[in-house]
Task: structure prediction
Amino acid sequence: MTRMLFRTAVSASRLTLSSSIALAACGATAALGEPAPVPFEEIPYQRTHPPLVIAPGGSAMEPFSTLSVGEEATPSQPSVTLEVVSDDGASAMRLTFSEVVLGEGSRLILRSAEDGAQQVITAEKAEEWSGRSAIFNGPAIEVILERSKGDTEARYEIETKTVVPRLDVEERIEALEERTGTEERASQEAICGPEDDRQPSSDRRIGRIIPVGCTGWIGEGNKLLTAGHCVDPNNPSDMDLIEFNVPDSTAAGVIKYADPKDQYKIKTETIVYQDDGDGEEGNDWAVFEVEKNTETDRLPLEAQGGFFRLSNALPRGAVRITGFGLDSTPRSRNQTQQTHNSESISVISSQENDVVVSYIADTRPGNSGSPIISLPDEGGQSDTAFGIHTNGGCDEKKGTGNLGTGFQNNELWKAAVTITEEKEVAEQK
Result:
């Protein structure tokens, strides 16, 4: 029997989201960088009792109520085991495995006890995802091992459980302000008028990056793009997943996560980025790739059915900014996809690798990385992006707008377009 093995070494210490991203991006600068990090706690897992053994011949794809509890299966029989990992204070959870050993026909199934969303893990997928699972809504994950006939060595070990606490939007804003040393800037600076005029949207090409809390989107050639300050060089796993088709948040503003079939593991080794880190705009961008989804075996471009074409020409007329910013009006829109239009866009600084564009479109923390999209003359969905939103800076008194990096930035253009062209040529040979 062919057997696949995944093993990794994971620190057993308690971990929290690195604050260096937010501090670098949102500190005492002229404009407010706009990530909205999702706080979490990574806790060493201690198994309190062995997994429940389901009678031979059962299938975890059936409701558990139809299965009977039986004795430990013999090597000649298939079996199913069930283990429930929980944390009463969690709004969502994910698991990290130190070991996954599966023979042919065996599989590991993870299922949310709250909404039934599930992910099927193989040893190969466990390695691609660095031993981490998708994020599941709710305080409990059912871990189901389906062991095929004769696969006596099939097993797994859970190293840590990652717990996302139940924080409403006001608590999130307060935590962000405490983290960055700002007062009210997180909730106000990026709104360009007296009211927040963003509206719900459903552009399938735009996703939410977790846990850093930025916006990412599909460019050409299966490349994805976001803001450079969303990347922490000391802790690249802060930019770990991108999820599409994000559901509404709860009535209190607690964010909910997409189905595992819409979550993608970011390949940190592919990240190309630039962030001057000096509070200046115009050279703040990142380009990256992802692993195929564990459920669909697809990349985002194929699964979402579209991408943005890139242009390094300045658009004529109105533009749109779409992303996953904080919101409390209503709270159910918190860090869900919303959009707002600006009647115009202008270049306020232009050098070879430092191109700042400005627009009067409302954004909030979490919009970092949003595409700057042209509006089609006759309505409908635009296919062209002209830059990456990075900073809030709207001030009616000063006459300033929110800011981004334009694709006239040569290094950004090379990373996003030239590399794609070279890859396509190589694939054709």
Remarks:
- The longest helix spans residues 410-428.
- The two ends are 36 Å apart (CA to CA).
